[in-house]
Structures
1.
Amino acid sequence: MKRTSSALLFFLAAFLAKAFSSPVAVLHNWEDRLALDNREAVRFSSGDSPEYAAPGFDDSLWPLLSLPLSPGDLKRLERSEGAVYWYRVRIRLPEGYPQKALGIQLGKIADVDETRWNGTLIGTSGSIDDPSSHASNRLRQYEIPAHALRPGEENVLAVRVRNTWRADELPGRGNYFIGDYDAMRSAFFRRGMRELAFPVVYFVFFAYFLLLYSKRTRQKENLLYSLFSIAFALYSACRTDIKYEFISNFRLLQKLEFGSMYAAIPLLMAFVLSFFREKQTRFHYGYYVFSAVCLAALAAMRNHLHWYNLNVYFIQYTWIFPFFELFRTLVKNYRKSADARIMFSTFAFVCAAIAHDILLSRGIRMVLFIGFWLTPFAMFAYVSGIATILSVRFAKSMNQIEELNATLERKVEERTAALDKSLQEISLRDEKIQRELVMAGSVQQALLPERIPDWPVRIAVRYKPLREVSGDFYHFAKTLDGGYLMYIGDVSGHGMPAALYAILAVKAYSEAARSETSPAAILSRVNDDLCRLDTTHYLTSFMVKYDGEGRLHFSNAGHPRAILLSRRKKKITMLDTAGTVIGIRDDARDMLQDAEIPFEQGDRILLYTDCLVERANAEGEQFGETRLVDTLKKFFFEDLDALIDKTLETFFAFAGGAENKDDLTIAAMEIE
């Protein structure tokens, strides 16, 4: 019984000594690396006190934990951004002095920290006392100065941490160890350079696709993939540990990281839809607007926890829509396109990696032995898949170019010879056509009156065809009852067809004037004759008849209104009747009407084609009927020829250098 009691007291004393003693991690020699993942080596406490930094502080009552933190350790942490925690580790160093500088790596321990070795501050990241200061993504590597080391004795590492309770940024990622500082930094830079390889590749693709777009701007998928590549290059660079070696602004890096992803996702969807020529709906455009709003909100928010929470708890879940659209598009084109099959396989890997990383950011591992982000590798595979597609396309293009180069010289010679022959034929044909046009113009001119008739009225005409042949015409005739006819016509269209139609119209007018006496009846007979022609042309016409007894009879067939200048009344009157164009309606006879008006000595009637009022100047303003009347008022008392010539001078001065696009004809009659 006595022996049993002694044994119990011995084990109880040993247990109490172990429970209330401070465990010590041992670095056996200066070349070793001491890992800090021993649960019996790290003491932990919440709260804050300057005493916690002192090497002699008694931390035996602090609970033990391991670094990185386990899921059970995370439950001890207060969910408050301003909470402060301390970690203390006792480390026994070997005798003598280190041959190389010692350093400590603390991984991504939390938000901001102050790290001390034997009470000496060896490094900080951010400022614990400044709530706006953050550094949660930064990997800590601090050099331990030689004067702070105590070889052969117990050394104390004390780390003061401000917690942000973010599952992916708490002391739960990275390797925690003490070792050769130079080797530690060398390994850091080697790893950083490897991590930058992905952003560099994405940037190369950005430049490559942008170059392709500059060559073929109609292929918008090149522009979209170029923009996606630069956005993802920026995102990938912001996910590396080495970024703090170039930029130390935590807020800027966080906003660049989130913002580049907000831009990359919709750009990726837009690229795939454009690549496979899928129609974009209002839902797609709505998501583009939503992404732009998210970018604006990110730029406006100042509290990094707000934009972090917005991303983790809301925006990430909206990515379901673009990824679903990508999946749907690739499945739709899977069988008919090898490109779709390549994209689908790599896209499936991307989706799995993103799901893995979202869960990992919340402390959940899909695969136990994978504790790192998979998205960078998945996206690299996706980019490589697109590169494969582009390489195949490029190889095909190069084969085609080689084939073209092999036969290009021969084809150029053949094509040059064919072009020379064609040019010769065209030149001969143009000469023939020009001769025919000149001949046709001569025929047309011969059908128009060669001289003004010797009537008891004065006649003046100005005829300015646009080309050798014209669709305008004018004529004079006497009726059976002794009246004096003057009429003007304008055929629709230009060139030879219009000129031939005008020749037929002049012949029809001449025949009608020998049997009819009123303008409306003559126009009706002309309409009957022209309607028999199988053509799409038609004409407008205005006809006046002076009966020799002081009355002017007139009829309008869809032509610009005539202008009567009454010398005695000093008045200008616009003449018009109901009617329609000639040559397309059999019932035009029922629509054409006659009208009459007094026509006294000194009065003048002016007929003209539509070019006179419809021609525009360089600013697009037409000469117009109002400006024509104002011009006639200005030269009202000039003789008939001077009146017409000065009116035309005003007209051409108004038009300036504007191109004339129609024939121009003016015919006037005055009672002497």
2.
Amino acid sequence: MSYQENFQDLFIPGVIGLITGLFIVVFVRAIEFSTELFLGNIVGYIPPLPAGEGGSTVYHFVMERPYLLPLSVAIGGLIVGIITYLVPEARGEGTEMAIKAFHFRLHLGLKSAVFKLITSAITIGSGGVSGTEGPSALIGGSVGSFVGKLFKLDDHTKNIALAVGLGAGIAGVFKAPLAGALLSGELFYRRDFEVEALIPGFIASVTSYIIVGVFTGFDHMFKVPVHPFKGLSVPLFITYFVMGVLAALVARLLVYAFFNIHHFFVNLELHPALKPAIGGFFTGILGMLNPLAIGSAYGWIQLIMLGKTTYLTPLHIITGVLMVILGLSLTLGSGGSGGIFGPCIVIGGLTGASFYYVANFLSFLPHSHIDIASLMIVGMIATLAAAANIPLSTLILVVEITGGYDLLVPSLIAVSVAYLLTTDITMFPAQVKSRIDSPAHMDELKGALLRTYRVADIMTKNVITISPTDPVLKAERLMAEYTISGIPVVVNGKVIGMVTGRDIMKVPISDRAKVTVEHIMTRNPVCVLPDMSILEVLNIFISNGIGRAPVVDNYENKNLLGMITRVDIANFLAEQERKKLAEEHDTALE
């Protein structure tokens, strides 16, 4: 490996992971401070924490002033609204912004990371339904973009640095380095993978994970009491298949609610700075009715897994699915700051718990093998995979957040079903189907077009021709009239030569009416066939130093069928690019 490769594949990802990890530590502490400031001081409520964040199995639920919760979230929303009005890049869902920046090669500076950290901490700490992973993705992406610019990387490598940083951010906050590395390549596409981001993504994600772990501990996010996996029976398969179907339905409901509420706030005739406060106020009302609809709710999910449901009835849990969906949609749809990953995990966990209670009531579950924690974890992973189009990363995530492989096979069943039932939706509209659909890979798109399309698809069929006995003056006038720089010389439909503007320039002006074309033409010119790819034609142009060629039926008869030039190829590529951008614009409007 060369010095340059070591620098780009080892050192730079390490720097990205280091800086991202430090940012995530500050972000976690900022959320703790904001939670104490808003929920603690105003509402008199401190939410439970999951085991990996220092949570205890013993939790005493107290909310001294629940009537002030709408005020707390509204104040947080107002502060965030003012900040995001002044700094627009801090608004909304962080992952979506990072994905868009990747595809359009937009620069994300540290300013984006700092303000996203502040606004997301305020949103979550004041009680808004939001997640830490979206802001962490944008923070990491901003760090990657900044480091790429700092070390003067080329545009393509800077884009990979952004992707690597995104994965490192999620790896740090989730304490899931492998899943973070995979997200570096998977999150940008619905049906593809950014392979170049994988290896540097591993380095950056592991580095970020270590930095965060040194300050906050290396425990898995959730303590999960599940039965060891001893094999797959028909009842178990059916159970997890149904779990996948339920996750797909919930993901569809989530996408529908989120974007409809978002469109409502976009069209609401109100100052942008006030909209997050309105959304926050109604989110606070939901939180008064159900504590699951406050903040990240990871701690409540942990308590439900452990069977600590002193303060939560099955009705709280079942209705919590809808309330968290509405809370997320109101919080982020109104312009609040944060992420979608966390709420998706909470919604999926509540869906799994709801399934457990309902199936138990109907005596549906195979009791000896299924517990509530297993269904909750599988529900989390399946719902996130369906809503975000990231099946591979979520399957690895289940191992890293639980610390074991016991739920890997059940998760594979549920994730596959949920993913296949939701191929037409996503919480991230900036995702594209594949690399070839990404503006960041426009050069690859052009290469694919050059290999796919044939000469017959773009050649000019109505060709201006000339006879070898015609005077050079006629050829000059034809070129001027039709704005062309070369004319094939034809006898009885057969190409015998080619005359160009350079050939004409060699004849004195006074002699152009006397000298015939046959005296200056290039005999047996390079010709191409209609079934050749455009790439083959470009290679012929380059190797022969020409810019045009007659298209003939075969190399023996050379009967003229058309004409193709470099200009024709350039115009074709430009038109395809214009159509692609128009389609992306129409999709964005939808």
3.
Amino acid sequence: MLMQTHEARLDALRRELKSRELDGFVVPISDEHMSEYVGAYAQRLAWLTGFGGSAGSAVVLADGYEGLGAAMFIDGRYTVQVRDQVDAKLYEYRSVPKEPMGKWLADNASAGARIGYDPWLHTQKWVDQMEKALIRKGITLVPVESNPIDAVWQDRPSPSNAPAMVHPQELAGKSSAEKRSEIAEWLKEEGYDAAVVSALDSIAWLLNIRGTDVDRTPVALSYLVAKADGTAELFIAPDKVTPELTQHLGNAVTIRDRMDFAPALAEMKGKSVTVDPDYGAAAIAQLLEEGGASVAFNRDPAILPKAIKNPVEQQGHRDSQARDGAAVARFLHWLEREAPSGEIDELTAAAKLREFREAHGDLRDLSFDTISAAGPHAALPHYRVDEDSNMKIPPSSIYLVDSGGQYPAGTTDITRTVWVGPGEPSQEMRDRYTRVLKGHIAIDRAVFPQGTAGSQLDAFARQFLWAAGVDYAHGTGHGVGSFLSVHEGPQRIAKSGGGQAGTDQELMPGMILSNEPGYYKAGGFGIRIENLVLVEPREIEGAEGEYYGFDCLTFVPIDRKLVDRDMLTMEEVEWWNAYHEKVLEILAPQLSGDDLAWVERECAPL
């Protein structure tokens, strides 16, 4: 009989822990590749607790009792969601980084306790930090050979066995052999025999393959060992291997069963192997060291070249953005007509937007779950609508939609905030919206010298909000992949410090980032304006050194009903008009009838 309640599942896990002589267990949202989005088979935290967010962890003590025996650890994005989805009688709520897991365990587990963790779901960096936090209480971290949740999760889905697909060179712009050769040169220069590549998007990029194993990210479950001679070993389930894949990879890539990966690591005696500290599971380093290999931690050598898009990838992005922009414009026109009735809800709007994307052809998936946020929900930056939270879009209110698509030539991500009539927005709404717009324009128009990091540009976007004594609690921009992850490192535009990965990475020509400042009034409304931009060289007469700027890739009308024209400078008005002139140029050939007339109206000079 299946366990239907989260209390029953928690009790079953505790019995399993006791049978293994473990005093507790850590449950992250993670898979063996440290992916942002994970397959259904890896949704252990959701199964155990009911939490549906994309980041968080739980700790369960075997001898639990109300108020002390288990805790949820989430960041500020999920403060509301965790309380809605996770039973407070079963779990305490703890906010990270202010209330770290290590401190909670040290305070609540018995001295000498044995706390289990799955070494395939955590990095070695995490293990080292936790051991440091627990040593004062004599608490021991114990790697488990098999995950205890899997032992009690009776109807756990199997990992996807969908075939891996070839990503053609006319879309990739560079062959897998060329990419492997570049990685091999780096390995030789650094003195390594091999690199273990476990991030799924890095494997997909390096081999020019894609898959359907993870929702929202077109990757195939696998591992790769890239070698200094340019060859590689791909560890992948046999069911996923097609004749086309075998032919595409050629003789230089040996295809092995995914089940052979762990034994293969243990056989690399005497080899010098590099592992990524952020994407390599702790088990990888542990198995290598046990087998006699020398292990070093370095950034995955595919990450930076993957982030620097070649000319073919850049053009693919432009083509995908144009197609996507027409779909989003049709949706915004539909929304303007239908939403003032008060009968359109958040789920209906999200489904309608997907329908428009599918109608334009070539959509393979969304690039993330659409944020369709009405009224006060728009004040939650990472809101995810579901059947329980779904609400109708109120007339005379702000509606925010953050969405994207996966197309074979590129990945899109766009946010538009619009006023739903009738009536007029308040002066406060106009003020905040216009300040966000001014920050968005400042990033778009930025010119900066070679070597500039994203953290050095972040204040460009915030300055107008800061002048009014307000701010937003997320980054201003993230990297975006080419028919890969919608959140791609290493580049970011965000405040430095606080462990913000990527904020010190210099911005380089070919990198694609989002430009998405925002403002959120708790319980009231939220605003975000997001386009994607490409870093490119800037020709400046008399310039001393290399200078760069951004070329906008996203072209969809920005809502004019929320703009306070008097707050804009002449240069900002000129930017607005030039941007919308380009929007019309790109979208008009794809639209007709009322949709075309709507875009023409929205693109009229401000």
